[in-house]
Amino acid sequence: MVPNSNHSHPLALITGASSGIGEAFARRLAARGFNLVLVARRRDRLDELRREFESSGDIAAEVLAVDLTQPAGICVVEDKIASAENLQLVINNAGFGSRGLFHTISIEKQELMHRLHVIATMRLSHAALRRMAIQRSGGIVNVSSVAGFLQGPSNVSYCATKAWMNSFTEGLYLELRRARLPIKVQALCPGFTHSEFHDTMGMDRSVVPKNWWMTSEDVVDASLRGLERGDLFVVPGWRYNSFVKLLRLLPRSLRHTLVRNAR
Q1: First-last CA distance in the chain
Q2: What is the rounded CA–CA span in Å between residue 46 and residue 175?
Q3: pTM confidence score
Q4: Among 62, 68, 164, 217, which has the highest number of CB atoms less than 10 A from its own CB?
Q5: Of 64, 61, 58, whose CA–CA distance to 11 is shortest?
Q6: Strand partners, 185
Q7: What CA–CA distance (Å, rounded) separates 161 from 144?
């Protein structure tokens, strides 16, 4: 049921909202009656989504076209969070990947990845929790990856930053429970997902079997179901869920052997 006035709607702020998982979150939450703050670099795509949402019903959507690898961009979003009324969800989804041996890839690109996955996630989570602790409600979803449970050649920084995101989210979860604050946090850990993410990396999708690919919509639906249950880690898809459970049982030495021998 959607309230009569859009000022009374719950508000969700989504980073990386211009495509893929971020866009799917925006569509699913708009359908649930959320007002939206859409954050990404591509203003044209954000404006297109805003017009679509506002023309289809009683939803208000605001666009913040900023670069979250830069301090100024993070400050814009922090200020928005601090002043937002009825903020109920923050989705830290913005991210990118790269492929290649760590010492051969541009160090500037690696630094931008750490700024986006680590610094932006940390600062926006801090801003959101300050707001949500006062109102004693809300939730944060940090979009991590199955890669956060392992480490592999050619993905060193990506795996490391996603492992940090998993650990950070778990720490928040324990802290909030101890403080008896009714705020939900989730590390969403998808596997291969149809989006622009892998196209930007220049990855050949055919190297991954078709049944290991998921849609952004399926990933988001799993996240929202998990959020309702209060799940800390959500790994969408039975294949990936089973893989992560098995991975956690294997000794580190065996995991290293498997990674070294993998294609």
Answers
A1: 50
A2: 34
A3: 0.90
A4: 68
A5: 61
A6: 140
A7: 9
pLDDT tens for the chain, 263 residues: list them.
Answer: 233 346 679 999 999 999 999 999 999 999 999 999 999 999 999 999 999 998 877 889 999 999 999 999 999 999 999 999 899 999 999 999 988 999 999 999 999 999 999 999 999 999 999 999 999 999 999 999 999 998 878 899 999 999 999 999 999 999 999 999 999 999 999 998 866 555 555 555 566 778 878 999 999 999 999 999 999 999 999 999 998 999 888 888 888 887 777 65
**Amino acid at position 64, single letter:** L
CB 239 within 8 A of CB 190: no
76-106 as b/e: b if 16+ CB within 10 A: bbbebbeebeebbbbbbbbbbbbeeeeeebe
Q: Mind giving me the DSSP string for 164-216?
A: HHHHHHHHHHHHHHHTT---EEEEE---SEESSHHHHHT--GGGS-GGG-EEH
Residue 185 and residue 169 in contact, taking contact as beta carbons nearer than 8 Å: yes
CA–centroid distance for 58 within its chain: 26
In order of start, what are the domains of the chain with their CATH numbers?
6-261 (3.40.50.720)
Handedness of CA 80, 127, 139, 91 (dihedral sign): positive
Which amino acid is residue 155, in one-letter code? N
Q: Give CA–CA dist 245/47, Å, rounded.
A: 41
Please tell me the total number of residues recorded for the chain in this structure: 263
Place of tokens 């778990």: 170
Nearest to 239 by CA among 203, 215, 212, 209: 212
